[in-house]
Amino acid sequence: TGCEKEPSSYMWIYILLGNMLRGIGETPITPLGISYLDDFAKEEDVPVYVACLHTIAMLGPMFGFLLGSLCAKLYVDIGFVDVGSITITPQDSRWVGAWWLGFLIGGVTNFLAAIPFCFLPKNLKKTEEAGNDKTLHVITPCIFQNQPIYPFLSDFCTSLKKVLSNRMYFTLLCCSLLQFNSFIGFLTYKPKYLEQQYGQSTSKSNFLIGLTSLPPVSIGIFLGGLIMKKYKMTIIGATKFAFTMSFLAYVITLLHFFVGCENHVVAGMTVSYE
User: Which N-terminal residues, if any, form the signal peptide (predicted)?
Assistant: First the structure.
């Protein structure tokens, strides 16, 4: 009973707030970034640019896993304790890596990457293909519009209803939810699977996932953009292409059911104490 101790740390609140702020900052990148590319790039070049955007978005988690692998090799209290006095290794179950270091490095990197956005011009010129007339597109941030919050919410609900009533968009939304649910589950549990079944450390598991799983996805996204540009696919052509690739991916993924290991022998769980 002397070893029992109630948790008294509230650091999870800071992590929750930090992730909330990060999500608020990251959300505009995809919709506004793709809209920006679609408005001010040639039509045949848009698939490649969007593919580059998503490719870089996939490379980020890869570097994150590699960074997590490096941080997991460092003791959690690095900088505050004498490293020579630590008697356990990363292979020890009592080892706790410097998980907080990744947040610090990621936060500083995000801040530095956001600085160039402050220098983007407010007015952008685009040459229309039809009349060759240069039109001026003015970007006005919504936060500077002096309008009450209630009309904004009413317009938002109306727009949301129209968007969700679009069958094509709603189908794409459901498909994306299913894909991301499976992908997140894969990234969440596969490192733990490598640790439990193959006796790998947390550091090496993260390294293997970051090195073998995410780069092929990035390459696939980039090649998809190149193929769409080369064959100048229409909406229907792109839909058929996406369906074919997704179907082949799911068929190949079924092979995971034939790969596995026997459960570890654990007294009281898989075998009796005797």
Answer: none
